[in-house]
């Protein structure tokens, strides 16, 4: 069982503010101060990112565009420019690399940094976070929020605490109390379904969760039970992994018109499979679990998975398994608006743990 660590790590979580939308507002002055949604279309798309002006109306990422438009009639839809976002992400990571080699990117716009031992020889993680935020602003004309703490869970909570353009520090003395008063729905790693289950069990805050015995949490939440048990005590021993390997790869597509036949769905799945397999080839990785994602016209979503004894060696094998999963869903009573395929159980994650020094935040 984890115990209260005697050697403290210094972890920073950097998270860009409304990244995609902020880039579009930066590059198009007319969009500044206006509610902007990146991605999709008014009728059939899904919001990839929303500006803070749009969020005031309840618009958020992964929301169907038609609902977003209903919530915010003046919402402006902008096509994503992933090449631009990737270029800015590379700029950010170059900045991070000047401070530490231990960087764990989570997406284009956020990452964990372990600065316990850093390239600048700085004793204050807070000062490092301040410098990084200033550098990002100067070099990209965008803002980032930062959280500083002694573990990943608390650093992530801290970066969310004063968004946008904020910096917050959770010290070892603050950690357990900070978690206790927080609603469980705001915990990183607790999704809507898990939050709803916790609420049904009378678990609304970190303090409620802390009162639950470990055996109870394991019974209710299986492998996640111990994680919930320890984070409510401010303990998270996960290291920042500089060599973090992607565990899955996926692609999906929303269709201009709903699909009703197996042949149409099979044809629509081909370019999705191509994209997934291109990544596998370029990364030199293979997986043995394929998951088919289907979203219907009424936005009901289902997934179906199948695992092989060994990784798929060819695209043809991936295609065959995907088509078999798809075939079981037809005929359909309602149209299919989205299909996706993901491949998981990829290369096993390596570890790169290093001794940590006891330094103040």
TrEMBL record:
Active-site residue list: 110
Entry cofactors: Mg(2+)
Record keywords, A-Z: Cytoplasm, DNA damage, DNA repair, DNA replication, DNA-binding, DNA-directed DNA polymerase, Magnesium, Metal-binding, Mutator protein, Nucleotidyltransferase, Transferase
InterPro entries for this protein: DNA/RNA_pol_sf, DNA_pol_Y-fam_lit_finger_sf, DNA_pol_Y-fam_little_finger, DNA_polymerase-Y, DNApol_IV, Rev_trsase/Diguanyl_cyclase, UmuC
Any GO molecular function: magnesium ion binding
GO biological process terms held by the UniProt record: DNA repair; DNA-templated DNA replication; error-prone translesion synthesis; SOS response
Its EC number(s): 2.7.7.7
Domain UmuC: 11-191
Record's catalysed reaction(s): DNA(n) + a 2'-deoxyribonucleoside 5'-triphosphate = DNA(n+1) + diphosphate
Site (Substrate discrimination) residue list: 20
Physiological role: Poorly processive, error-prone DNA polymerase involved in untargeted mutagenesis. Copies undamaged DNA at stalled replication forks, which arise in vivo from mismatched or misaligned primer ends. These misaligned primers can be extended by PolIV. Exhibits no 3'-5' exonuclease (proofreading) activity. May be involved in translesional synthesis, in conjunction with the beta clamp from PolIII.
Family indicated by similarity: Belongs to the DNA polymerase type-Y family.
Subunit structure: Monomer.
Protein name, per record: DNA polymerase IV
Species classification: Bacteria, Pseudomonadati, Pseudomonadota, Alphaproteobacteria, Hyphomicrobiales
Gene responsible for this protein: dinB
């Amino acid at each position: 069982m984890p115990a209260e660590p005697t050697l403290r790590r210094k972890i920073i979580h950097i998270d860009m503010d409304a990244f995609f939308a902020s880039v579009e507002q930066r590059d198009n002055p007319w969009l500044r101060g206006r509610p902007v949604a990146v991605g999709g279309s008014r009728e059939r798309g899904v919001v990839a990112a929303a500006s803070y002006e749009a969020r005031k109306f309840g618009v958020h990422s992964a929301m169907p565009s038609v609902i977003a438009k209903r919530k915010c009639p003046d919402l402006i839809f902008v096509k994503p420019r992933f090449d631009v976002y990737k270029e800015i992400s590379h700029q950010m990571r170059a900045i991070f690399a000047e401070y530490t080699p231990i960087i764990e990117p989570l997406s284009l716009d956020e990452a964990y940094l372990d600065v316990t031992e850093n390239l600048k020889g700085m004793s204050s993680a807070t000062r490092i976070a301040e410098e990084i935020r200033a550098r990002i602003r100067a070099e990209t004309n965008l803002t980032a929020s930062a959280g500083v703490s002694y573990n990943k869970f608390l650093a992530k909570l801290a970066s969310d605490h004063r968004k946008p353009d904020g910096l917050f520090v959770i010290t070892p003395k603050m950690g357990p109390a900070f978690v206790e008063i927080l609603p469980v729905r705001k915990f990183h790693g607790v999704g809507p379904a898990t939050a709803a289950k916790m609420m049904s069990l009378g678990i609304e805050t970190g303090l409620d969760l802390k009162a639950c015995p470990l055996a109870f949490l394991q019974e209710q939440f299986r492998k996640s039970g111990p994680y919930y048990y320890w984070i409510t005590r401010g303990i998270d021993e996960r290291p920042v992994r500089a060599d973090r390997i992607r565990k899955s790869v996926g692609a999906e597509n929303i269709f201009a018109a709903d699909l009703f036949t197996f042949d149409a769905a099979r044809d629509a799945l081909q370019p999705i499979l191509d994209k997934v397999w291109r990544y596998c080839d370029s990364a030199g990785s293979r997986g043995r679990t394929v998951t088919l994602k289907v979203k219907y016209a009424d936005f009901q979503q289902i997934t179906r998975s199948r695992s092989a004894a060994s990784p798929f060696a060819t695209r043809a094998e991936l295609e065959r398994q995907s088509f078999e999963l798809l075939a079981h869903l037809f005929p359909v009573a309602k149209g299919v608006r989205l299909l996706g395929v993901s491949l998981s159980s990829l290369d096993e994650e390596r570890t790169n743990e290093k001794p940590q020094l006891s330094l103040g935040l």
